[in-house]
Amino acid sequence: MYVIALTGGIASGKSTVARRLVEHGAVLIDSDVLARRVVEPGTPGLAAIREAFGPEVLRPDGTLDREALGARIFHDDEARRTLNAIVHPAVKELGARLRAEAVAANPAAIIVHDIPLLVESGRADEPFDLVIVTEAPKKTRIARLVDERGLDPVHADARVESQATDEERRAIADVVIDTSGSIAKTMSQVDAVWGRVREEIAAR
């Protein structure tokens, strides 16, 4: 087993890098996907959110109203910490279970944990074999949020500013992939990292 942590700010190109690693044969465990799974109806996570934030953060069908919850936590650090204390441990536990399943199926698996909030969640000290950080200039990321996700520029700027800084992410990085250029340039950087991983595994 070889475990890679993949992180980076919003709209910094993590999904593009993750897709390329999967094409090479990696098993992807996506924390954003897990974060949705751990708050599905009937989960302890959703019950804890309802208890902490009230029934107004649920839709009539019992699912989580992400917009309502987002509005509650966006400018409230204490509320955000409360939510993170519910979601992050559940995501970590589910991710560990999926990793164990992947290794049971293939003991030589190369596993990529896509963890957008690796710095913010305090998980950077976990025993990863490699930490990859995706990076692009702030103006590029804001433009992507506006053009690709339909955010207004003010909201896009606020989303970028609410996360860890590039310096904080670089401090935990083994590899930084610059996604500000062409897709081809990004892919070539990922391919080089994959070659490095294969060499490290062969040398063990």
From TrEMBL:
Pathway: Cofactor biosynthesis; coenzyme A biosynthesis; CoA from (R)-pantothenate: step 5/5. Coiled coil: none annotated. GO terms for cellular component: cytoplasm. InterPro entries: Depp_CoAkinase, P-loop_NTPase. Pfam families: CoaE. GO terms for biological process: coenzyme A biosynthetic process. GO terms for molecular function: ATP binding; dephospho-CoA kinase activity. It is found in: Cytoplasm. Gene3D superfamilies: P-loop containing nucleotide triphosphate hydrolases (3.40.50.300). Transmembrane segments: none annotated. CDD domains: DPCK. Keywords: ATP-binding, Coenzyme A biosynthesis, Cytoplasm, Kinase, Nucleotide-binding, Transferase. Its main location: cytoplasm. The keyword Acetylation does not apply. It catalyses: 3'-dephospho-CoA + ATP = ADP + CoA + H(+). It comes from the Bacteria. Its EC number is 2.7.1.24. ATP binds at A11, S12, G13, K14, S15, T16. PROSITE patterns: DPCK. It is an enzyme of class 2 (transferase). Belongs to the CoaE family. Catalyzes the phosphorylation of the 3'-hydroxyl group of dephosphocoenzyme A to form coenzyme A. NCBIfam families: dephospho-CoA kinase, PRK03333.1. This is Dephospho-CoA kinase. It comes from Agromyces atrinae. The lineage of its organism: Bacteria, Bacillati, Actinomycetota, Actinomycetes, Micrococcales.
